[in-house]
Amino acid sequence: MASVDAILNQLFLFFLLWLCTLSSSQAGHHYSEFRYPFIKKASSFLSSSSFSSSGVGDHAYDYIVVGGGTAGCPLAATLSQKFKVLLLERGGVPFANANVSFLNNFHITLADTSSTSASQYFISTDGVLNSRARVLGGGTCINAGFYTRASTRFINKVGWDEELVNKSYPWVEKQIVHRPKVARWQVAVRDSLLDLGVAPFNGFTYDHIYGTKFGGTIFDRFGRRHTAAELLASANPQKLTVLVHATVQKVLFDTSGKRPKAVGVLFKDENGNTHQAFLSDSQRSEIMLSCGAIGTPQMLLLSGVGPKAELEENKISVVLNSKFVGEGMADNPMNTIFVPSKRPVRQSLIQTVGITKMGVYIEASSGFGQSKDSIRCHHGIMSAEIGQLSTIPPKQRTPEAIQAYIKRKKDIPREAFRGGFILEKIADPISTGQLRLINTNVEDNPSVTFNYFKHPRDLQRCVDGIRIATKMVQSKHFTNFTQCDKQTTDKILNMSVIANVNLIPKHTNDTKSLEQFCKDTVITIWHYHGGCHVGKVVNREYKVLGVNRLRIVDGSVFNESPGTNPQGTVLMMGRYMGLKILRDRLGKAAGV
Questions:
Q1: What positions does the entry give for FAD binding (predicted)?
Q2: Residue 136: exposure state from Cβ atoms within 10 A (0-12, 13-18, ≥19)
Q3: What DSSP letter does each residue of 439-468 carry, written as one string?
Q4: Is 248 annotated as ligand-binding?
Q5: 276 labelled binding-site residue
Q6: Catalytic residue (one of 59, 527, 529, 533)
Q7: Using one digit for the tens of pLDDT, what is the confidence trace for 517-558?
Q8: Does residue 527 have a known ligand-binding role?
Q9: How far is residue 452's CA from residue 522's CA, in Å, rounded to a whole number?
Q10: How far is CA 569 from CA 113, 349, 370, 565, in A?
Q11: Of 3, 270, 230, whose CA–CA distance to 101 is shortest?
Q12: 178: annotated active-site residue
């Protein structure tokens, strides 16, 4: 009976996908035309000739949002309730993309290194493999789906209006967030955390509370993902235009006055043709950068806002010498402990979270959506054979390092496809790095350094977290579930060193020294942030300092990642800032 149910579920999912594909194919240049009639290909856009005509006709916008991601979609949808908005997204639509839509295919988009993938891989100078989104919906299309709110401390620290925050979170949650069907693996995680004192158990909650909890997810009960792109259904279709495959090259400025003034953007369509879009003449019209923590500082630099020396080195005309653009880049380092299993394990992404008082978060994943044979043949961004190592600094690109890397990849234990991982993440890393341009091609990744574990406090917290994770694997809850004997700490660490894949050279003592283990096996959970900090690049309203009519709404303004997982707060931020701008501009007439 169980196998019949599984087959019926699969048939239902494929039926849903067929309907979405049919809708997309019938739409021509429009996407899901009945629900999203305002989504069009960039090539359909009719450009204005110059900003001098920006106050005339249909080509002027009250707001131009650059980046249709986690923050950009709710921001554009909200602003469109009262104003004319243009949303520009460099990627395509997620609606009929099976790799984006289904939990079972979670890893495939991350492994797809093609130019049309929803995920654009990059490798930090630290040697850690990473990804950034390239699709309408942004990171909500390629992440593990976990949804939680930020702590009250974070909300107060950034100076947000708590009442408006508490209106903005539910707006997101009612549309795309679900309560997960908790997997048995995740129950074992909960029980082992409670035994180790990560208490109390707070049940199912979105709130950020010390102890152990089950959180929300953007995957529904059928395993289908719901992304930020779906929030566009709340937009005013008469006032919103969304262009996909619209790659913004730079922000355009009028520099004839005392302060540079943003007037529009230059972008290329899917055919490589160039277009310009302009703001209306109103001083309250704005360009909103929501390109993410990698894309937004890169966009500022390409637009001539950044350190003068770096701009001149890249032959970019200096609009504003802003020396802190690209500084303070941070990524929450993650290390994982491999948990073998003698029994098949249902696939689950993050559902259980342990919020400790030592600055460490514990999460977990289990199983795998595809067969162990297929994934062993192709590791996408982790494939040393297909040329990605050319982007790695020469010191790490030795023939020995490459061969060792390939061997580690091929030696990933087969049991990994039946077991899972305990994930340990540093809550608020002190170590930071920087972002620099490599060239002036917006489609190329900039150089990013995070300096994982540069500060000793970060390293100590990793050690504390790894100790918790290894004790969890040794607990009766996991030995009973996996039907594996209790393993020694050395054996657990040895298996985990093999299963963690990055480009950092390994050391012979990385299972004897937990500090070395942390350094050698660090990976990412994609929670990078910073590069446009408040007080240095933007003010507390996120307006770019030194220029007019340019604002940033995304995680690049954060100096810490909110909550255990940031997507919920970044989604909320888009809605929150949209509401706040409407209220500030219209007062009671905003009606929100």
A1: 89-90, 135, 248, 526-527, 555, 566-567
A2: buried
A3: SS-TTSPPEEE--TT-SHHHHHHHHHHHHH
A4: yes
A5: no
A6: 527
A7: 999 889 888 999 999 999 999 999 999 999 999 999 999 999
A8: yes
A9: 8
A10: 28, 19, 31, 8
A11: 230
A12: no
